[in-house]
Amino acid sequence: MKNLNNNWGVPLRVGLYAFTPRACGVTASIPHAREEISICQMIFLTFIQNLLSKKHHSQELILYLSLVLKSQISNFKSQISQLIVHTFFFPNLSENIITLDEDESKHAVRVLRLVVGNEVMLVDGKGNRAFATVSEDHPKRCSLEIRERKKETTDRNYKLHIAIAPTKNLDRLEWFIEKATEIGIDSIIMIGCDHSERFTVKLDRMEKVTVSAIKQSQQSWLPEVTGVISFKEFLKNVPATAHKFITHCYETEKKTLKSELKPVGDIFILIGPEGDFSPTEIDLAIEKGFVPVSLGERRLRTETAALVAVMSVHLSV
Asked: Is the Cβ–Cβ distance between 115 and 134 less than 8 Å?
């Protein structure tokens, strides 16, 4: 292709761009489609090279063919969009026509490139999901028409509640909330402890993290995130019939969480701050029926310990 003079540059670029993942709206989530596009690029280049090797050809002909191919790839892009069902969160799925807010509309139309006729899935965080079709692809008010609703039942025999002391670095706390939501959790309660370094969190930000996580994992249930409450207040609100555990790093007799777990009913697990629970807090928890447990031989960060606890419960089923 280096021997081509500059007059061929425009039609070649038009044709090649028509077969790029960006032009087709293809992401890394559909590798097979990307492979198909790469093959199309190779076929197009081979065709051009063969055409140029002949005596009779014209730049207009190549440009025309390039534009035809670009039209064809537009149809290919539409077909690919039908293969992907994007998930959106909407708190009320009772209406047949809903309109996404401006941020979600912009994401749907500008980023995901959804157009009228594309199908999407909606979840409300209360166990309901719906399948809808884009009826208006406006970047500020994307409208969806619901055509089918479905009530999801939980696939777990237990409800998992993690009470965690917020980390000094909120990014680490958000990381835990995101991953725990993707795996499956019912509530996350922030607690203020004797050794806590943070007593406030931006609750709206944490809720956005959970919404993003259920969209990513295509779940219908949104976990409840509670703002920071005192350690004693938390103990008062835990049901007496729940399975209750407290993790700490003190050298005392403890069994592993895995050996003590009974994955039924409500499960509450206490995760302390970077400086661990105080001896007084541990004694108060034990008086309330919390069982001291270990998460293993290694000392873990607060957010890591919390995620290990979540995984331990899920893997015990």
From this structure: yes
